Automatic annotation (TrEMBL), chain A:
<dbReference type="GO" id="GO:0008289">
    <property type="term" value="F:lipid binding"/>
</dbReference>
<comment type="similarity">
    <text>Belongs to the ATPase C chain family.</text>
</comment>
<keyword id="KW-0375">Hydrogen ion transport</keyword>
<dbReference type="InterPro" id="IPR035921">
    <property type="entry name" value="F/V-ATP_Csub_sf"/>
</dbReference>
<comment type="function">
    <text>Key component of the F(0) channel; it plays a direct role in translocation across the membrane. A homomeric c-ring of between 10-14 subunits forms the central stalk rotor element with the F(1) delta and epsilon subunits.</text>
</comment>
<keyword id="KW-0472">Membrane</keyword>
<dbReference type="Pfam" id="PF00137">
    <property type="entry name" value="ATP-synt_C"/>
</dbReference>
<keyword id="KW-0813">Transport</keyword>
<dbReference type="InterPro" id="IPR005953">
    <property type="entry name" value="ATP_synth_csu_bac/chlpt"/>
</dbReference>
UniProtKB/TrEMBL annotation, chain B:
<keyword id="KW-0812">Transmembrane</keyword>
<keyword id="KW-0813">Transport</keyword>
<feature type="transmembrane region" description="Helical">
    <location>
        <begin position="33"/>
        <end position="55"/>
    </location>
</feature>
<comment type="similarity">
    <text>Belongs to the ATPase A chain family.</text>
</comment>
<dbReference type="InterPro" id="IPR035908">
    <property type="entry name" value="F0_ATP_A_sf"/>
</dbReference>
<dbReference type="Pfam" id="PF00119">
    <property type="entry name" value="ATP-synt_A"/>
</dbReference>
<keyword id="KW-0793">Thylakoid</keyword>
<keyword id="KW-1133">Transmembrane helix</keyword>
<dbReference type="GO" id="GO:0046933">
    <property type="term" value="F:proton-transporting ATP synthase activity, rotational mechanism"/>
</dbReference>
Length: 81, 252
């Protein structure tokens, strides 16, 4: 592999994961905070809130996972190599 | 894998070897198949068949016990999952599909973490959860697409395509795009989560082989179970979206 392409790919891979972690991180923080507030107001709804929270967290996490997929492609299946 | 070669110097204990992008190819005609994925999925299928056969009630036994009890619990779980998504009226028809998706993905994900595949060596590549190969997840996602098209077309006939211009015709491109993004996001979510989990555990085992990866492995079991649930839930939601019509808004 051309060293310039290799270096660029590694940097791009790191940036992909790092940037993709920012948004979902904020979103997950918001969602969990709201869920905790909801449980504090209405402790008897805890089960329902927890189920919904887990599902939504999984959805938000998948956004980061897309970034991870991009970086894995750059590292292991680089189309420009 | 070439980029991670530097890491293997650190690896004095051969507990794990990461082989990303290496496959044991089976050539059938012009097709190149990933053999290790097939072996692992056949194992999962055999496991599921054995579990179903073991759930058969014993002769002359009135009260369900043991395996039968457990499998009935599983069935009830799947039934509730399908009923929540599809509503009382339609869920029975789609329960087998959604249940199969959930069980296959769930057992595949857990097999990757719980079964010591590393003890079995194959000529090339390594055995792992079938769902960490993108071909498996794409196949499952395309099956889901086929299922919701079939559901919509069989319920409404060609009138199903009226959905595409339903609120206003200007949404047509977005609705068509949706049909491509649904399988894309379904397959990438599952593939990415499972592969990421196995990679993180693999890299940690490289660096700190004992005890430290254990909590992450437990977390991996949890997230992979959630991913199976998410996949089945979304499949149900897409099918329901295809078969729902305005006059029956009774379910909630």
């Amino acid at each position: 592999m051309n060293p310039t392409v290799a270096a660029a790919s590694v940097i791009a891979a790191a940036l992909a994961v790092g940037l993709a972690a920012i948004g979902p991180g904020i979103g997950q923080g918001n969602a969990s905070g709201q869920a905790v507030a909801g449980i504090a107001r209405q402790p008897e709804a805890e089960g329902k809130i927890r189920g919904t929270l887990l599902l939504t967290l999984a959805f938000m996490e998948s956004l980061t996972i897309y970034g991870l997929v991009i970086s894995l492609v750059l590292l292991f299946a680089n189309p420009f190599a | 894998m070439t980029m991670l070669d530097g890491l293997s110097i650190l690896n004095s204990l051969p507990l794990a070897a990461l082989e990303v992008g290496k496959h044991w190819y089976w050539e059938i005609g012009n097709l190149k198949l990933h053999g290790q994925v097939f072996l692992a999925s056949w194992f999962v299928i055999v496991l599921l068949v054995i579990a179903s056969l073991a759930a058969k009630p014993k002769q002359g036994q009135m009260v369900p016990g043991g395996m039968q009890n457990f499998m009935e619990y599983v069935l009830e779980f799947l039934r509730d999952l399908a009923k929540n998504q599809l509503g009382e009226k339609h869920y029975r028809q789609w329960l087998p599909f959604i249940g199969t998706l959930f069980l296959f993905i769930f057992v595949s994900n857990w097999s990757g973490a719980l079964i010591p595949w590393k003890l079995i060596t194959i000529p090339e590549g390594e055995l792992a959860a079938p769902t960490n190969d993108i071909n498996t997840t794409v196949a499952l996602a395309l099956l889901t697409s086929l299922a919701y098209f079939y559901a919509g077309l069989s319920k409404k006939g060609l009138g199903y395509f009226a959905n595409y211009i339903q609120p206003i015709p200007i949404l047509l491109p977005i609705k068509i795009l949706e049909d491509f993004t649904k399988p894309l996001s379904l397959s990438f979510r599952l593939f990415g989560n499972i592969l990421a989990d196995e990679l993180v555990v693999g890299v940690l085992v490289f660096l700190v082989p004992l005890l430290v990866p254990l909590p992450l492995m437990a977390l991996g079991l949890f997230t992979s179970a959630i991913q199976a649930l998410v996949f089945a839930t979304l499949a149900g939601a897409y099918i329901h979206e295809a078969i729902e019509s305005e006059e029956e808004e009774e379910h909630g």
